[in-house]
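Next comes a single protein record:
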Amino acid sequence: MAEAHQAVAFQFTVTPEGLDFHLSREAVKQLYLAGISSWKKRLVRAKNSFLTGVYPASPSSWMVVVMATAGSFYCQVDPSLGMIARIRHCLPESRLLSYESRTMVSAALFSTGVWLSAVLLFRQALKLLLSYHGWMFEPHGKMSRSTRIWVALMKVLSIRKPLLYSFQTSLPKLPVPPVEATITRYLESVRPLMDDEKYSKMEALAKEFKEKTAPRLQKYLILKSWWTTNYVSDWWEQYVYLRSRSPLMVNSNYYAMDFLYVTPSHVQAARAGNVVHAILLYRRKLDRGEIPPVMALGIVPMCSYQSERMFNTTRIPGKETDTLLHLVDSKHLAVYHKGRFYKVWLYYGGQLLRPRDLELQFQRILDDPSPPQPGEERLAALTAGERVPWAEARARFFSHGKNKASLDAIERAAFFLTLDEEEHGYSPGREGCMDAYAKSLLHGQCYDRVPPPRAMGGLEAGAAHPVRHGCASPQCRATIEGSYRLAKALADDVDFCCFQFSDFGKGLIKKCRTSPDAFIQISLQLAHFRDKGCFCLTYEASMTRLFREGRTETVRSCTAESTAFVRSMGDARQTRAERQRLFKLAAEKHQHMYRMAMTGAGIDRHLFCLYVVSRYLGVQSPFLAQVLSEPWRLSTSQTPQQQLKLCDLNKHPDLVSTGGGFGPVADDGYGVSYIIAGENLITFHVSSKFSSSETDSKRFGRNIRQAMLDIAKLFDKPAEKAG
C-alpha cells in the first residue's frame, strides 16, 4: 500500500473539522521531474522541426545575411534597393524606437525575407536535382559528364549534416507512367508464361483497355497525383493491408532474426533489459529526428515517412477495414510470459530506466510463480485469427469497464515483448534448428506473437514494478478458442527451410560482372524450373523511396531472357559460352527492370491504382480483373544487411544477421527471402505449405543451392570459343 500511496500527489480526508490534505513530497517531485522532461522533449522536437524546415540552410546562415545587410548600411550601401526604407515607413512610430532602431528592425525583416526566399529557392533546386535518376542507369564504373555535375551540385546543397526528415519536402512525387508504356511492359512480362493462344487473348484485352477504358481512368489518376503526396501509398495501405480480412499471422507478418554467430548474454532478463533500453534510445533519436536518413551513394536521400510509425502504433480491427492508432509517445511496455500479461513502466521521474532496472523488472516476471488466469494464456489468439471475429469480440468484450481500460493500456504501449520459454537460434550440427527458429518467430504458439486485448485487474502503482492483467469471460474464452484453432491450422501448415549458403558470396558474384541480386534471382528461376518443371509469375519487392512517401514496387523477375538462360542450362547442345551470353542478357534485363521500378516506371502499382479508380467509377475492366487475379507463385525479397551504419561489419564480421522471412503468398507457391551477408555468406529463408502437393521447402532449398553452384561454374574458367 505504501507504493500505491506514493503514486498519488495528494490525498484528502473529510473530517468533522473539514478537509484534511496530505501531500506526498516524493510524488510531487516525480510529477515535477516528469513535467520538466516532457517540456525538454517538446523543445528538442521544436528545434529539430525548425532545422528540418529550413534545410539546407541553418540559423547561422540567417545571422550571416542579417549581419551582411547591417554592415552594408554601415558602409552607406543599400542592398535592398529601397525596400528597407519602405519597410521602415510602414513601421509604427514610437518613442521606444528611434529612427536608427526602426532602420535596424527593417533591415532584419528584409534580411529574413531574403533568407527565407533563398531557403525556398535552395529547396526547389534540391527537388529538381533529386528528380534526376540518370545516375542509376550509368554503366558500372563509368559516369557521364551530366552525372558528375549533378553529383557536385548535390554535395554542395547537402553539405550540412541532415536530420531524418531534412529532405522530406524536397523529395519528388512519384510520377504516373503513361498507360501505353505500362501495358507494353506488362505484356512483355507475361509473354514467357503464356502460350500463343492465351497471349493473343491477353493482347486483345490489353488493346481494348488501352483504347477505351484506360484514358478516362488515367485522367483521374493524374488528378490524384497532383493533389496528393503520393498517388499509390494511401490506396496501397488501405486496400492491400487494412481492408484485408484474412489473418495477419503468416499472411502479412514477417520476422527478423538476431545475430548468426553471437549471443551477447544467455541471461534472459539481462539481455531483455539491454535490448529494450537500446530500442528506447533509438526511439528517442527517432522522435527527435536525429537519425540521419538512409542515403544511396551517400548523397541521394530515401523517404523516411514510414519511420514515424515504427513505435507507439497499433492496428485496430474493424468489420470492413482496420485502422491505425499512432501516439506521439508511450511510457510503458506490454510483456507476455508463460500465458501471463504484464504492463512494465519504462520511465521513473521523467528519466528512462537503466538496463539494470529493466532487467530487475523482467526478472520479477520470469520468477513469478502464479499461473495464468482462466482464458488468459491464449487470449492473444484473437489477433491471430480472421479480422472480423476479432473486431466483433473487441466490440463485445472490450468496449467498457476494466477490459476497455486494459485494451487502452495495451494499444498505447511502446511495443510488445515476449519472454519465451524455449531458446531458439543457430546451433552448428543441429539439423532443423533454423527452420524451428523461423517458425517460432513468424507465428510462435499462435497466441504469443501479436499484441492481444486483455482484461485488467487493479493497477499496482510504483516506480518499477510489473503490472499483471486479468482474465476473460466464458463467452470470450469460446471466441478465443475458435480463433486459436484457425490460427494453429494456418501455422502448422507452414513449411520452412532456412539455410546458410557459404560456398561463395557477393565477392565471387561480382567477378561474374553482375549484381548479386540479379545472380540470385536468375538462380531462383533455374531452381524453380527444376523444382516444378515450369515457370511462374515471380514477385520481387523493390522500393520507391526515392520519392516522397514511396513504399514498394514489383519487379517481375521471370523474363524472356531469364527463361532462355534456364532452358539453355537443361540443353546439352548449348555451349558454355552461349550460356554465359544468355546469363549476362538475363542479368542486364533484371537490373534494368529493377532500376525502372525504383524510378517510378514499374508495372503493378500503376495497374493497381487504375483498378481502384475503375471500382470508384463503377467501370468493369476484364483486363484489370485478369491482371489482379494472377497468382504470385514465387514471391521473393532481399533483406538489406545494413541500412544504418550502426557498426562496422568489416571489423566485426561475427555480428552478421541471418535476415528474416515471410510466409508463402500463394497456397501452391514459395516465399523466398535472402540476405547477402558479407563476401562469403548468403542466407535463404524458404516457405511453402505442407498442404500443397506441388511444394516442398527443403527440396526447393536444395535446388537453390545447386542452381547457385551450377551458375558459378560457368565463370570458373575462361569459356570455350563459340562457333
Q: What stands out?
A: The chain has 23 helices and 20 strands.
